[in-house]
Amino acid sequence: MLRRPKPTDSEADLLREQESFLTSGAPSAASVVRRPDKRRGEAGGDAEEHNEENEQRDRDVVTIEDLPDQLPSLTPAPPKKSRFKASRVTFEDEDAGERLDRHDTHVSAVLSRIVERDTSSTPVSLPAFTGMAFPKVLHRSETSSKVPLSSAGGKKSIFARQIAAQRLKEGKTPLHCAPEAPETSMDTDQCGAADSPVSGPSLLSGQGLGGPDRSGEAMRIHRENQAKLQAMSRSEILQEQKKLLTQLDPRLVEFVRSRKAQSVSSSASASKQPRGESSEDNFPLENVSRESESSGAAALFQRPEEVEMEGEEEEETPPPAVTEEDLPVKPQKEWVHMDKLEPEKLEWMTNLPAPRKKGTKQAMQARFDFAGALIPPNEDLPTHLGLHHHGEEPERAGYSLQELFLLSRSQLNQQRTLALSTLASVISKARAGGYQSVLKGSMLSTLLDAGLLFLLRFALDDGVEGVMSAAVQALKALLVCAEDEECLDCTFSWFRGLASFPLLPSAQEEEEEEDEGLPECMKETAKEKEERKSDHDVALQDVVKGLLKMKLLPRLRYILEVVRPSPPVVQDVLEILARIARHSSLSATQVLDCPRLMATVLSEFLPTSWTAPSSPLPQSVYGLPLASAMKLLRVLATSGRHACARLFNSLGVRERLPCLLSAEPSELLLAPTEALRITTEAYRLWAVAAGYGQACQLYIDLYPGLAKALQSVHRVLAPSDPLLPLQLQRLLALLSLLTQVTHTAGCHQELQAGMVSSQGEECPPPPPVSWGHVTGLQASLLGHLKGFVKSLDNPVQKESSLTVIPAYLVYLEAYYHQLSRQNCFKPVETLQELELLTSDVLLPLLSHHAIQGLINNLKSSSVVCSVQTSDVGPETTPSLPGLACPGWRDSPGLVVPSSPFPLLTGLGLLVETITGLHKGLSCKFSGLLLSEPVIGYLRSCSQATPTLSHNRAWLLRHEHHLLYLLLRLAHRLVPIEPQVAKHASLYHQVALVLLPWLLPGSEYLGHELLSTIIFSKDFISEGHSGGPEAVELGELRLQEETQHQASPSLQTVGALLREACVQLPSIRGCFLTQLAHLESSVLTSRDALLGRNPWISSHLLPELTGPTVPSDWPFLPLVSLYERTGVSDGGGLAVEELPQGALQAVTHCLQWLLLLEVWREEALKVILPVAKLARLSCVFLCSSDLFLERPVQKLTWGLFRLLTRRTRLDSLDLNVPPPGLASFQDLYAALLTQYEAVSFGDRLFGCWVLLPLQRRYSTTMRLAVFGEHVGMLRSLGVTLEQLCIPIERFTSPPEDSLPLLRLYFRSLVTGTLAPRWCPVLYVVALSHVNSFIFSQDAAAQEVEAARHSMLRKIYYLTSEVLRNHLLLFRLPQQHAEFGFSMYEQLPAMRAKRLENVLRVQDNSDDKGD
Fold first, then answer.
1. What is the DSSP letter of 7?
2. What is the pTM of this model?
3. How far is CA 22 from CA 52, 60, 1024, in A?
4. Is the distance from CB of 1287 to CB of 1376 less than 8 angstroms?
């Protein structure tokens, strides 16, 4: 017997074993079968028969004798053989040329194989013989009269119609019986078959069939098809048709349909159909068996949906043929080429049909007239209006947006101008919300998406001035809203009215996938990314930025400097520039930096000298001062201190203001209205500059003119003056200037002292105006105020008095505020003066019936209390934000004359200042806080949830000022006035909701609220009026009703509240520390609100990105600690120990949350319950032992009990992702990991983990507990009494997730889940498994098999206790020994089910045996 080779054998041993194997002749264990190689031409026919014979010969044998001692030299490999060479048979004596000709594929070889078609049966017609030497020349007039158009087979050439006429004349069939096609044989076959009783097939001609009778074979096949079709019912035909449509290539189906349409249209039946309907649409399936065979062959490809809809569509009768009588202008024979009429070419001259509304439910195309008005679809307008010059829907008047876009690129100047003017009108009406009730979607968004910006930008480059002017008009309509500017001008004289938000679109988060993984030095900056974007991408996000990227500013400069357009275009350009400057400080800087732009504006439209215009409406405004140019300068100056300094120092604005303000408006050689407007804008520009502490030397130089203007106030405000509104605006601008100059002068002393003590540190220089320059104005202005208060009794002067009184109050506040900071301040004299001011002016003003009427409008004028309705309003788009002011005069609001907000804000400012100087005057203004309109307004504000947007932010800012001032007055009155103290909780509630409403620029107000009111004991009256005791009594009553003992570690909430009230000052310090990162913003806001003008850097407020303080600010210490120390995945910490003071900060945070949850629940309603739970979960994730600290444990227990009250559990939806998290499930996974790592079986942490396991929440969290984290069941020892959540919320309804039920069962059977380790989940698992195994509901086979399997396994359990628990479980019962009740014995129905399951098991076992 041969041995197996060993690893130690040498090559000689292996060869020796091979030789002995071959000599023995033993059969091999594996035989090698060689398969024939077809590529080499080897045959494999009878190879298998000779396998045994050739086995010895073909056996692979390794030989080593013939191998050379040295390696062979590297030689090129043999050439590869062609796989087709073996199949080629060649002969030695064969001529190579003949072989080449045989395989040649030249075109001559192809053409030589063409076989002429048999044309013996084709009729041949010869031309008629004539006696003329040459054929007669065809004339157009000889063709249409001989052969009618219908008989010529449709629209054909003149030559084809003449040939058809000749055939008719000879009595032959015309050639138009078959459709035109490249295959002449198909035409011949179909023409020949047309005379037969059964026409031939329309698709197949039999040309590809072999044999002489191929046409007959095609006819035979066609007859068989027709017989089959006639034998089938309509439903069978439809079914086969649908089957074919699903199987065939769609292109093939379209080809068959087109061929069928050609054949049917050229048949006799098609000529009977009305024009305008295709034979395909009118082919009835009921008549398939009666139609010709060619029609029946194509019927299978007709879609049944089209047929079913024929009855629903409105039938349109074809228009009658146009005759000479229908034409409005009768053609004359003398006219060239009009001797013969061509109806299809003259159809456009007929009268239009009457417009009618189509019988369809689809939306119709909007059409507009030249004024931008939407034209109803059924309105019949005369054609002389020019609204019918369009191709689509010629009977409807007006132009669609597509047609206007097309006309705007026309070669005709008039068409371009008309289209752009119409677009401008459409955009203006869209901005005003004129189309929202009649059009679907947003008009502005549609236009911008269609490329309106690029269209207008191209039109601005047009060389025709009319087209360019229309483009400017359209661009102004898109960017500028006159009502928005008017509202901003009306609020300029309000408190901080000169400040405004930049009109930037809301910031959108951009994907930064390209920069991922790159170091910081290699990442692109925001500016580089912006430059890399295309114009289209930039314009999609920001219209103004997109226009700037398209080089709009140089083009506008060219228009003003070179084109020198008409006055309306100049006004539009200046307003466009002002809107661009309002966009942002960066845009304003680009306007200033544009070469020669501002120089052109100042030299042409704000000259230092000018001549009076010859007419009220001059042909050119070049060389005349314009109010819009002055307003542009004012908006540019608002963007920043540096821009304002450039205007006044570098561009020469300082020299131009005296030219306009040193004389009366009537002496300015301008029209009265323009003179008042430009002086008003000049005062406003000066006020903006004075707001930075600049241009104050002008105040000293022009003081006589200012004093003269103040002396003539009552004279110019005559009620009969038609220019009274302009005079009022001029006076308000003057008062704003004086207010800002007073603030600047009040800072002179502080800056002077700071400059001395700065010792080289950076300090603003003191302004040239000092306090002595402004003290003389106070007496004059106070006299004006007294006069206007008295004029409130005069109905004629009442409205104008109410307009100017707020500005006087704001000025007096500035004066007394700065007076208290001066060295010349005399307290005694000032207090007496304030008492006289209060008794003589303020109290009579406050009690006046006109003011009381305004106060009654407080709630109706509020923006905070107003609910956003879906009524028709102004239209805005995200890429072009606006103030949405169109129609503001017709609806209640803050800016309308009936609004009390400007007057109450000015009065509140003055009261805040004088009560700060004279504490005894506070009680005199308690009536304002106790009035019913104010109390009702504050109650509405405490329950409001205003939305934030550009449309509302500029108004919300002013309303926040009033709310803050009312709360400041309450802060002074609550400790000393018992009647006001009764409403302390209301004021506290308003302060709590106002804090997260405050917008950028109001950070100082938030700091003051936190420092004074929010954490004040006086405003939390429950803390010292039996509030904690009342909570304790409520808890005792709750315990008596529920009859359960609380956990020993659970302290009552009342005691915790009592401790929190004591710690209020520390709590305030904790939250102020958490908001320390806002310190720079608070200081900037303080400078602006307190009138520290030399320190103000810009009157443009910060970008509107959201409120200053987040809505969940009470959780801020907890969240910030988690962000510093916690790990999102749980189960560990990034640091070894908590930062210093972290425990105290968390304790204060929990105390404040507990106080708010009990006494200020409304203040936290903006925070979702799931967000509260997620934030409080940071207690367990911040550290490994923070939740074990005794104060944290007590407070968290109290908050847990508050969050799990029966009324709160229903509103707790964990399926909603908390703000800042992708889902609650991710947070829960981190909690489970942390629990397993550091909980040590803590009952509080256990309750927190059990809360999301209620039946109503996602199964994912329960699967995570019983799957990945099943080990935590050994330490989850929370009892049913400690849980504080009804157990029914965990057990009802029965679980329907089969994987989870299997996990429940496995944990019970394996002993992982036991009542002594995890009593709550033990009851839950028992309940669900018991309900599942004894359920009588019908279920899938897999579920039913799982029920039987579980029931059998339960019956054979070795643990009798667990078997009884699973089988005899009845209901959860909190006070039972194991937390549930049991049956004494198995109910009959359940016992029968168990018996059936066991019997089935026994039967299956018997069959197996």
1. T
2. 0.76
3. 16, 12, 114
4. no
